[in-house]
Amino acid sequence: EDAERGGYEHFMLKEIHEIPKVIEDTLFEYLSEDIEMDASFSAGISEIVFIACGTSYHASLVGKYLIEKLTGIPVRVEFASEFIYHQPPMHRALTIAITQSGETADTLEAMRIAKKLGAKTLAIVNVLGSTATRVADHVLYTRAGPEISVAATKSFIAQLIVLYLIALKLSRLPGSEVNRLIDELRAMPELVRKVLEREGEIEQIAVLISGYENMMYIGRGIGVPIAMEGALKMKEISYIHAEAYPAGELKHGSFALLGEKTPVIASLVPDETYEIMLNNIKEVKARESVVVAVADEDDQEVEKYVDFVIRVPKTEHIFSAITHSVVLQLLAYHTARKRGCEIDKPRNLAKSVTVE
Ligand code: G6P
């Protein structure tokens, strides 16, 4: 097993460091010279319904944001385990099931039900030949390679890459704008390498975080699913109770939890939510929580209001989901390591949940 970890202490860390390569491989699958993404799955649909569990559910929330923003197609996101019993109306819907393993029982059952309800199904899957690939009408593979660590990292980023490509493929933006965004996407491996270079800094902040038992992750817009996935990573491997909230919603209840015992991780995305997010951060600081912001490298403003800033390379705002998520994966990893946790095989969890 030591050899398979390639010199890394844990599979999770190795898999995070594989992310630049995984982005390259997934882009190559759909953007190399003679291959284009086959989008026949989208013909005649009036809405998209995502079904997924866990980290794949958070990828779906990013997918909803991207598809609604870039294409105007309405999107719903359902937990597979809820969809099975809820069976919502699926009029001319395309169901997109996202699953790393392709074996999650709830997701498979939800796909079968979606088909019975008359929807077309597309599966975004990492494991070749898995059950989901046989149930779905169409399949798009992520090229993350085998993921050993229970906590999903590189497979999540690969799912996001496929979602960017779907959203751009179906987008109603002018061709020149789509090409510009695809060029930015091609630059992501390099930008993630820059994030990985800051691992030492992130580790220092993890030392501080490791002393707490409760945390709050906040964001707005695409920052909300980023925060949710960041909090899930932290819970899964460090056993710190971490909640994620849309920053504007804190005042309706969760403010009561803030204070010096609850640090807050704030994802600041450079879009129309930036200014209001800064206001939310000021409100949080007034409740005496330590605030760690994840923000663009050229952001001069945020450092005036927070305790620590983890910088990410500047990108088009939609791609912040990639850079920020890698930061939050490393933060969870180093926090768990500092706390002496199991990391690759956390208590009570399984890589793939094959029972309903
Ligand atoms: C398990 C894993 C999670 C994963 C979820 C969904 O709970 O521990 O990391 O996100 O299943 O898995 P899937 O293979 O369907 O993406």
From TrEMBL:
A single GO molecular-function term is: glutamine-fructose-6-phosphate transaminase (isomerizing) activity
Q: What protein am I looking at?
A: Glutamine--fructose-6-phosphate aminotransferase [isomerizing]
Q: Where is the protein localized?
A: Cytoplasm
Which key words are in the record?
Answer: Aminotransferase, Cytoplasm, Glutamine amidotransferase, Repeat, Transferase
Subunit details? Homodimer.
Q: Give a short account of what the protein does.
A: Catalyzes the first step in hexosamine metabolism, converting fructose-6P into glucosamine-6P using glutamine as a nitrogen source.
What reaction does this catalyse? D-fructose 6-phosphate + L-glutamine = D-glucosamine 6-phosphate + L-glutamate
Q: Where is the SIS domain?
A: 37-176, 205-346
The EC number(s) attached to this protein equal 2.6.1.16
Catalytic positions? Answer: K351
What is the predominant subcellular site recorded for this chain? Answer: cytoplasm
Name the source organism.
Answer: Geoglobus acetivorans
